[in-house]
Design brief:
- The protein starts with 10 loop residues before the first helix and ends with a helix.
- The chain is elongated, with a radius of gyration of 14 Å.
- Helix content is 80%, strand content 0%.
- It is an all-alpha fold and 114 residues long.
- The protein has one domain: HPT domain (Four Helix Bundle (Hemerythrin (Met), subunit A)).
- It contains six helices and no strands.
- The chain has helices at 11-16, 20-46, 50-67, 70-85, 88-95, 98-113.
Length: 114
C-alpha cells in the first residue's frame, strides 16, 4: 500500500473544475469529517462492532477517493472488507495503520492549503 501516493492534489480539480475556493472548503471539511470517522472506526473495532467498522470504513473510503487520498482510500477498502466478513484479526491489524495514514493525508493537505 505504501507504493500508492498519499494524496493526489489534482483529484478534485479533475472532478469539479478549477475552483480553488470550493476545493479548499471541501478539503477542510474532509479533514474534519475523516478525523471523526477514524475515531468511530477505532472505537467500533475496540467494541467488536464489525458492522459499524465496515460501514464507516466504506464512507471514509468513498470520501477519501473523491478527495484524492489514495492510500487512505485503499486502507479503508481493506478495513471495510474485513469488517463486512467479520474478520476481527485482519480488521485490527489494518486499523493499526489508520491513524498514521490519516495523519499523513491531513498533514499533506494542510500544507497545500497554507
Amino acid at each position: 500500500m505504501n507504493e500508492l501516493p498519499i494524496w493526489d492534489a489534482t483529484a478534485l480539480a479533475r472532478m469539479m473544475g478549477d475552483n480553488p475556493v470550493l476545493q479548499r472548503s471541501l478539503h477542510e471539511k474532509f479533514i474534519s469529517r475523516a478525523q471523526e470517522q477514524v475515531l468511530i472506526i477505532v472505537q467500533a473495532a475496540e467494541n467488536g462492532d464489525m458492522v459499524k467498522v465496515g460501514s464507516t470504513a466504506h464512507a471514509l473510503k468513498s470520501s477519501s477517493r473523491t478527495i484524492g487520498a489514495i492510500q487512505l482510500g485503499e486502507l479503508c477498502m481493506n478495513i471495510e472488507n474485513a469488517g463486512k466478513t467479520g474478520d476481527r484479526t485482519v480488521c485490527n491489524a489494518l486499523i493499526k495503520h489508520l491513524n498514521e495514514t490519516f495523519a499523513k493525508v491531513a498533514n499533506t493537505i494542510q500544507m497545500s492549503l497554507e
